């Protein structure tokens, strides 16, 4: 059972790992806001954002293959969601073809839109990967709670991440049991009924597990507050790093808005 899906490399030692989780969360949020506010087609600004992230990734010692593998997963979904804009955005028609009486023309405005969308999405995902890969999830959730997030929401996220792996293991055991009792290739209707029964059984088991976990926590005096061994505290390095990185992130956005 694998429990390090998001924070697999949070145990490494680097200047990025040592920074306060609240600082990293706020900087990640600032970075995403700056990327979204950058005008479409400001490729020099997007290149500057990539350079900033690349420098921090190099400092954090995260494996390049791990980062690329996780970040590139989102791009096909973003492309499928935005590809229709290539043919509907106004602009100079660069490529056209007819399909069944329908005329489709790719415009420069549409290509600019989809390229900007892909760049923004990739940058945002890279920032989130950097945040979660350099911060243990309990510390990150505690930092978010300290910043004023609702305690209930933080606890839901904590339990969801903690028990998601148990549910995945449960599904895999149910699938193995189904396969061991199946001979040949059963008809689609039988497979659909089996999958429906598995979903219902998983829901009941999850509900019962949640009740048992709640009863066990209540018996141990749980009061709804998450506690960790490490207390969060800003130091001089956090303040200096936060101020410097904030200026570095705001500068490309300011230049792109003024030009």
TrEMBL record:
It is a multi-pass membrane protein. The chain crosses the membrane at residues 21-40, 46-64, 71-88, 121-140, 152-168, 239-258. It is found in: Cell membrane. GO terms for biological process: cobalt ion transport. One of its GO terms (cellular component) is ATP-binding cassette (ABC) transporter complex. Keywords: Cell membrane, Membrane, Transmembrane, Transmembrane helix. Coiled coil: none annotated. Its main location: membrane. This is Cobalt ABC transporter, permease protein CbiQ. It comes from Dehalogenimonas alkenigignens.
């Amino acid at each position: 059972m694998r429990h390090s899906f998001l924070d697999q490399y949070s145990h490494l030692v680097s200047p990025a790992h040592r920074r306060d989780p609240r600082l990293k969360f706020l900087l990640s949020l600032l970075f995403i806001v700056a990327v979204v506010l950058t005008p479409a087609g400001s490729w020099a600004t997007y290149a500057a954002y990539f350079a900033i992230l690349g420098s921090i990734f190099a400092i954090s010692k995260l494996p390049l293959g791990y980062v690329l593998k996780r970040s590139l997963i989102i791009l096909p979904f973003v492309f499928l969601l935005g590809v229709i804009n290539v043919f509907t955005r106004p602009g100079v028609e660069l490529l056209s073809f007819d399909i069944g009486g329908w005329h489709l023309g790719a415009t420069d405005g549409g290509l600019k839109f989809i390229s900007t969308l892909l760049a923004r999405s990739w940058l945002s995902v890279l920032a989130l990967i950097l945040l979660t890969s350099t911060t243990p999830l309990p510390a990150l959730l505690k930092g978010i709670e300290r910043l004023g997030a609702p305690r209930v929401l933080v606890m839901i996220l904590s339990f969801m991440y903690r028990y998601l792996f148990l549910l995945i293991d449960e599904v895999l055991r149910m699938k193995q049991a189904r396969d061991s009792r199946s001979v040949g290739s059963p008809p689609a209707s039988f497979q659909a009924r089996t999958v429906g029964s598995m979903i219902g059984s998983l829901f009941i088991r999850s509900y019962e597990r949640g009740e048992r976990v709640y009863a066990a926590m209540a018996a141990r005096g749980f009061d709804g507050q998450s506690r960790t061994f490490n207390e969060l505290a800003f130091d001089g390095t956090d303040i200096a790093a936060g101020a410097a990185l904030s200026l570095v992130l705001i500068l490309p956005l300011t230049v792109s808005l003024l030009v």
